[in-house]
Amino acid sequence: MFAQNRLSAWMAGVRHQIAMPLRIELWNGQQFDFSAEPPRVTIRLPRASAARYLLTPSLSNLGSAYVEGLIEVRGAARDMIAVVNALARSTLKEQGRFARIARNFTHDRKRDAEAIRYHYDVSNEFYQQFLDPAMVYSCAYFERGDEDLATAQAKKIDHILRKIRLQPGQTLLDIGCGWGALVLRAAQQYGARCVGITLSQNQLELARERVRAAGLEHLVEIRLQDYRDVRGQFDRITSVGMFEHVGLKHLPEYFNTIGSLLAEDGVAMNHGITGTDPDNGETPYGGGEFIDKYVFPHGELVHLGQVLKAMQQGGLEAYDVENLRRHYARTCSIWTDNFEAQAERIKTLAGDKRFRIWHVYLAGCVYGFEQDLLSLYQIVCGKAGRNPRVLPWSRGYMYPASAP
Questions:
Q1: What is the pTM of this model?
Q2: 57 and 161 share one domain
């Protein structure tokens, strides 16, 4: 009775502040709606002890309770995330426990490899359920905004290869090559000699299989290798959706390593997610805590300003910076729709718990990018102090003539 009384008081307070399409179902069959419109999200508390998750409705608390099956949540993922954020804002303070606390993780080869395997080595078939056919697991590029996912991902790769002005026969290193889409395109379209590196065994095997199927073994090599162990010189270097795993403390070392591998007149491009808090804090209300626990162990998002500072400390000069935040919001929205459309197949492949983890994660990413809690920048760079003669004077070369 105490739990129900306390919960009733909490619900009355929330309903006084904000209306939302939410229904809460209690263990005794009682229902409480938070607006006059039909509920789009229903949270069911199967027992009185579950009330504590609602009383402190951080993204971490409610997300963890949902993932572990301690509460039941019904509704589309986007609606779920919007409702939970509304509950957090109306109940919690952005100070103290749920502030945007900056955290530094320890990164070394062993920890980084374990984190990558945890996230990526679910199964290739799992990722095939919601990615495009080329399995490009990073922000797409929408020239008009109405492209399908496969088209937008192909345009993203072409956009990158134009940005770095890849030339026929050049050498290219792709750090965090995923399932090989970028190096395959670079070899097919430019005849570039490519090395792609990954720490995921599943990605390695499928990427190599795709290289063989395309008849490009003479141009493309896929390695299971840490970026810190690569040797040699490359005309072009790309890193797409990888530097989030590097860690704030190690960013200068990361960029220094890229610089040491880059030819004197070479061009590199870093494509990665950043935080929007100037102090490099986590997303508010425990969102970062949830992602670290369940999705990306030891991942760290830093502000663009810190990225550019670390790049300069690492001996690289930024030539061009482009914000693709809106593009990633749309990409994640399509992934979420695909994920929900394949829900039963994904549960069969990965189990109910992992399904719930990714259900929360993908929708949370849509919300984060839409609300400017997260961003995505492509940064074209080269060795500091050089005259980048390989790049034209204007940005015109980056965009096809048909673009609006």
A1: 0.90
A2: no
Alpha carbon distance 38, 45 (integer Å): 19
DSSP state of 387: -
Number of domains in the chain: 2
Which amino acid type is present at position 301?
L
Q: Give the catalytic positions in this structure.
A: 365
- Residue 91 and residue 113 in one domain: no
Selection from 151, 221, 228, 213 nearest residue 186 by Cα: 221
Q: What is the CATH number of the domain that holds 14?
A: 3.30.1050.10
Return the ∠ at Cα 207 (arms to 203 and 212), rounded to 5°.
Answer: 155
Contact (CB, 8 A) for 3 and 76:
no
Domain that holds residue 16: 2-98
Lookup result for tokens 């500091």: 384
The helix-helix angle for 181-190 and 149-163 (nearest 10°) equals 60
Q: 15-47: per-residue pLDDT in tens?
A: 878 889 999 999 999 999 998 889 999 999 999
Q: CA–CA separation, 134 vs 256, rounded Å?
A: 31
Q: Is 243 exposed, middle or buried (0-12, 13-18, 19+ CB in 10 A)?
A: buried
